[in-house]
Amino acid sequence: MNKRKKIVAEHALALFIEKGIRQTSIQDILDRTGISKGTFYNYFSSKHECVSAILEQARYDATLTRAEIMIGKDPRDVDVLVEQITVLSTINQSRGLSLVFEEILHSGDIELKKLVLKYRVLELQWLASRLIEVFGDEIEEHAFEGAVLFYGIMQNLSFTAKLIHQNTLEIKAIADATMKYLKVIVQMMIVEKTTVLDTQNVNIFIASFSKAELSIAECIEQFEAFQRQPGFTKSQQDVTDALMDEIKQQSPREIVIDALLRAFTNEFKDTAFTNEVKELASIIWYIKKQKRCD
After folding, report:
1. CA-CA distance, 115 to 210, in Å (whole number)?
2. How many angstroms separate the CA atoms of 10 and 43, rounded?
3. What is the rounded CA–CA span in Å between residue 197 and residue 220?
4. Element (H, E) at 162
5. What is the mean pLDDT for each group of 10 consecutive residues in the chain (294 residues)?
6. Are 21 and 47 in contact (CB under 8 A)?
7. How many helices (H) and strands (E) does the chain have?
8. Residue 22 carries which DSSP code?
9. Residue 98 to residues 13, 45, 89, 92: CA-CA distances in angstroms?
């Protein structure tokens, strides 16, 4: 999402939180952002698409942050997974998306409900793939059900904590405890061969949702634009060029990319380029993982 479109979406989200989605008109968004109707429709074909863009931006930001957390870490580390899990919840809370979800789920708007369903299924799919990385291939047929159980337990613990006014309970503490419970449950599922959800039906259901992935072409385009910026030191330029050369290889070497990513982020640490470098490094890590899973 380009910068201007992102600003419009942020203003729209503020209005959705203040007035509700149904009560917010496109004219309200135009008045808040100071753009023309034509400009709005250049960005979004409808108010529903604007809502969709807001949800996708949250997922995109969570994806990059999760990738950043993983750089240089062991993907089997449970603590790393717990930290990644809290990312999306934190983003949703900080941006007020929890209120948006609540309104949508209590509305009669079928299209908006489908958006939220897609959002949640993709999150379950992400967690299922990470559970396999953490606990091994032996849980593959139980992974999606494990993800469902994890978020079910976590959601109900969070809800009950609010009911009993245990307001000091942090998301990370809930996620950490839930993961400990899930570890025992998953082992029981393997030993007892217990599965409630039919694997074939789950796969068909997941396949019905199209997941917009980050492409290597988009990554290279963004990286090349970064390379063209002035003001790099020789060592910064060298590591940037080396990383770009490796990414462009037909078969990039994972161990080389890992080493270059660490050097890349270290070279630009505490500089004017820090945030941009973090985003680029996260995108590269995500695509590397994506290709490994293909």
Report:
1. 12
2. 13
3. 40
4. helix 143-163
5. 87 93 93 92 91 89 88 90 93 89 86 86 92 92 94 94 90 95 92 84 70 66 86 92 87 84 88 84 70 50
6. yes
7. 14, 0
8. T
9. 12, 24, 9, 6
